[in-house]
Structure formats: C-alpha cells, structure tokens
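Table 4 source record.
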Amino acid sequence: MNSTEAFFLPGDASDPGYRNVRDLPHWREAKEFTESLWPAYRHMADPHFQTDARNHFLQRFWEMYLACTFMERGIELHRVGNEGPEFFFCTESRRIWVEAVAPGPGTGPDQVPETEYGKAYTVPTEKILLRFTSVLRDKLLKRHSAVAKGILLPDEQVLLAINSRGIPHAPYGAEMPYIAKALLPFGALSIDINPKTREVTDTYYQFRPELQKQNLSSVATTAFLEAEYAAFVGVLHSGVDSANHPAMLGGDFLLLHNPSALSPLPRNIFSWCRQHEYLNDQLNEVPSEV
C-alpha cells in the first residue's frame, strides 16, 4: 500500500496508541486488522479522518469499526457533510443518525483512575457511570446545535454509539451493564437471605435515581426515563480497539433501547447483537430471534 491507500500515515503523531500500532512489530496484528477495515470505510471518511487519527486514534478507529460492522450486517449507511453525527441509516422511511464517541477517563476529582497492577483495588463504579452520563449530556447539547444548523430535522433521532475502551475498567462491565446503570435508576445488587435457613429469598437492584460527584453535586441516572432525551433511540456499547476485538465484527455490541424514545428502534435491525430493554422497572434481554 502507498500512503494514499493505507490507513496509517508516516510522520509525527501525538497519540501513543497510533504510534505503537503503526511502528512496533509487537502490534503487527493490530495494524493489519486496522488496515483491513480502511478500504470499506475510506469512501465515507471525512477529509481529515486520517490526519486526525494521528492524535485521536481510538476515536477514529471506533468510527471506522462501527461503520464497517453496520455495513457487514447489511445496514446501508449515508454521510452528509463533515458536521454533525458521523452517518445515518434509514428505517421505516425515517433517518436514524449515528453518533460515535470514545470517551477517556475524564479529568479532575471525578476522573476514573487507572488500574495499578499488583495492588488490590475497588472498581470505581460511580465514576465510570459519570463518564457515560456526561457523554450523553454532551451529545444532547450537540444534537441541539445540529438541529439549529439544519443538519438534523427536529424530529430526527440519534443512536449514540459509545466505545468505553478509553475508560479504565469500563469495557469489562459488571453484573449489569454499566450503560444501563448510568441511564436507568439501577443501583447496587442486593440479596435478601433468611437468617434462619440461610436461603436466598430475593435478589433485586436498589433504586438509585442519581449519582454524587466529588463536589457533592448530583447527576441523574434517569436520562432514559426523561422526555428531554427522547431524541435518542438508544445507546450502543462496545469495548473494542485495534488489538482487542471479537472474531466477528460487532461481536461484543450491546444495545440499550430508550423506553422514552419518540419512536422505538425496530428490534430486528440489531437482532445479531445483544439487546436490552427497560420494561416494568426491570432490565430485560431481547430474545435473539426478534
């Protein structure tokens, strides 16, 4: 491949992940996998895609991986301009815009700390959840801006695709997906035990409508129950990167449907991945045959 055909470009790059995958023999397989996606996505990439990847490798990789997965699954994608969400697909005569984002650990007192290998630690669940709530809020504001600019119509909806590889601990999940705990009021898992028989009598998730930041301000965990977020049909989650990905594209995708969406996203479009829906105050997995 020459530089116009290859994903990776020579020269300076501020992102260490980009430099490692491009330059180090140890990351050869990751480089080859990334390059294998580029021919399918190249026609959709914005003019600055490759140069920006030098500084934001995970974000650009995720955008490309996501699009390639959708196209592999028969979802026809369209791109309009270089502003607003990355692309859209059509279903039932309406457009669903796809916004791809790969957040980092955050900054300040609520930053998710890195794992210190060899040391015992407690997973900072609430800080992880705050990263997800922050991303959704940010994308809501950006959607408002896109509507104001005429990029999106007021009634057009968005599927938010979050890659959590850049958030320590987040890709590995918990007994309930972090994304569900961030956008629906599910708290800690509780178990009731009969003190006499020591038998488990009930298991349930505590009701948690908000999180508390280090500055003592509160952040709601009920976004998907609020009309303000009805423009989002759901959130799709993945933890892939160039070196960590399933054998099949999208094999780790998890889609959380928004119960308050203006119009629900048809379940059959994503029947190939795990889907969850909120019904009767419970999180339920959508049967794969739907």
